[in-house]
Amino acid sequence: EVQLVESGGGLVQSGGSLRLSCAASGFRFEDYGMAWVRLAPGKGLEWVAAISWDGSRTFYADSIEGQFTISRDNAANMLYLQMNSLKSEDTATYYCALGLNFWGQGTQVTVSS
User: Which of 1, 53, 60, 88 is the most exposed, having the fewest neighbouring CB atoms within 10 Å of its CB?
Assistant: First the structure.
């Protein structure tokens, strides 16, 4: 059974940083590209970042380019999202995603201005 468990969210002041983590299990993590998506109140689902199976390629939404960094540790079955210079518009629930069908429970990020 695929399991994705996010952690690391919280309340942070504008300009601050957070590092989100996603613990993956139930599948061969090193075989799959992974992604982060977010859902903000009153807004649609937004794809944030993706990373190839080996970490050699990363992709970012224009809205967070240069602000967030996605990474992974295949030995530990972990996915990360380093978020810097956070703004109020980054407030959302962040989800770790495997393809379109598997998501974690999400971790809440709230940025106070």
Answer: 1
